[in-house]
Design a protein that fits this description.
By secondary structure, the protein is an alpha+beta fold. The chain is 26% helix and 13% strand. It has one domain. The protein is built from four helices and seven strands.
Length: 245
């Protein structure tokens, strides 16, 4: 006689349900952004800024929905989305789980001796051409300083965010129609105050654009859109640590 044994399954905790919900929300968001990028690569004519905004809006709505989900009570899915951590030198996004660097000393005067200075600009590369090398000041100054010694905030894993991650900290706004007056951030700069002093400017990502040689995606914390720029262009940066689910 054959006996069929069944394994008892424990009821998920509130935090396990939270992690499950966050992972699925991130998966949907990443897929949405990649779909927009694929259309750009195919040279499809459409409003990419508005499409990116809709991806973000759908993702951000998940956090709002979590707040009324009683099965998540007591988990990190409930409460403020952005939490100051490491004595306020970093901020944790409780929706993505990513930890971000905060900025300081916004005084319209760059101070390259302080990599956290909000006025500093950095570049991805000094070699514009068909093959791009990661030898700009992001890789020779900014990241080595953050990850040197014991590391910033006790971590040596700081890196430049990709465009999916960088767009995830733009403030939420609903896109009504095409990019412009009906599809732009209502705050200036377009970021939560927990991130410290922030210029309403373009911040570099580590993602290369496909539709043009030598381009990288940047995200505007002025209007909330994403744009392409040259790898050799110096722009604002913000470090992140943590990885994909």
């Amino acid at each position: 006689m054959l006996f069929c044994a069944t394994m008892a399954r424990a009821t998920p905790t509130e935090q396990q349900r939270c992690d499950y919900a966050r992972i699925n929300a991130w998966k949907t968001y990443v897929s949405c952004v990649h779909t927009v990028q694929a259309k750009i690569a195919k040279a499809v004519a459409f409003d990419a800024i508005a499409a990116f905004a809709r991806c973000r809006h759908g993702y951000f709505k998940k956090w709002t929905a979590f707040q009324s989900n009683t099965s998540l009570a007591g988990s990190t899915c409930i409460g403020a989305r952005f939490t100051p951590t490491d004595g306020g030198t970093t901020v944790t996004d409780n929706l993505s789980g990513l930890v971000w660097e905060t900025k300081t000393n916004k005084d319209i005067k760059a101070n390259l001796a302080d990599v956290h200075d909000a006025d500093n600009d950095y570049s991805l590369s000094t070699n514009p051409g068909t093959i791009y090398k990661e030898n700009g000041t992001i890789f020779t100054d900014f990241l080595p300083t953050l990850n040197g010694g014991g590391g910033f905030a006790g971590s040596n894993g700081w890196r430049l965010p990709n465009v999916v991650e960088l767009q995830s900290i733009v403030l939420d706004f609903r896109c009504k129609g095409i990019a412009g007056p009906n599809c732009t951030c209502g705050s200036y700069p377009c970021i939560d105050g927990a991130f410290g002093p922030t210029y309403p400017a373009d911040y570099l990502s580590a993602t290369t654009t496909i539709d043009s040689e030598g381009g990288a995606w940047d995200v505007s914390f002025s209007h909330g859109g994403a744009n392409g720029t040259s790898w050799s262009t110096s722009l604002k940066v913000r470090a992140v640590r943590g990885g994909s689910w």
